[in-house]
């Protein structure tokens, strides 16, 4: 994938309880219609998740997560050949099973912290891996997250893990600072302010702000009314070197990329 132009990752939640669109895309027909719309709007990658990682979300077992994905993924890969599919999971067995079903990328919100076999497994699978930073776990991450130097600590964590991944044979690593995952509002904006510092890891950068509380707590919006705030932050992230925008709203994010490219080609 050529990242000289920033890419759009569209979110498809196969969960009943995700913070914005939970319950909408659990059936194959609904998911297919959603993907068709995203393709029309210019999506580059579709990220499918079956385990909600919103703060305090219900913990489901591996069997249930795989059941949700198995009901969608084979049909999606059949209907959309050539579309890069990412799987949002922190479980190595889910990673293996879904790649066997045709997925192409593993997006791990825990950065390997919740499954010590993940790096080895992805190395064996030979697929790209999205390495995200999270302090704690989805149930505890927003219970007073604390850092002495938030950007420096995240950079150190991602840098060490990138080296570890390469040593396990992972050839394509994408780093994600993990906005909203074990960070206060202040932490999130400090990370965005210094996003260009993550270039020193020398891997593509993914960001995910879409409709999150770091917008709503500042503007007094809700997830349903946070599209404008999301667009603003996506614009700022591109100016600071983001390569991939992970979003619910593909059309609007694509417009951000198009205008950003026009600005820098003039």
Short description:
With 266 residues, this protein is an alpha/beta fold.
User: Which sequence of strands runs across the widest sheet?
Assistant: 6-5-4-3-2-1-8-7
Order of helices and strands: EHEHHEHEHEHEHEHHEH
Q: What kind of sheet is the major sheet? A: 8 strands, parallel
Summing up helix and strand content along with how strands pair, one would put the structural category as alpha/beta
Using the CA coordinates, give the radius of gyration: 17 Å
Mean pLDDT: 92
| N- to C-terminal distance | 24 Å
Give the DSSP E fraction (strand runs of 2 or more residues).
5-15%
Q: What low-confidence regions span 5 or more consecutive residues with pLDDT below 50?
A: 17-23
Helical content stands at 40-55%
For the secondary structure, the number of strands is 8
Helix count from the secondary structure assignment: 10
What spatial form do the alpha-carbon principal axes imply? globular
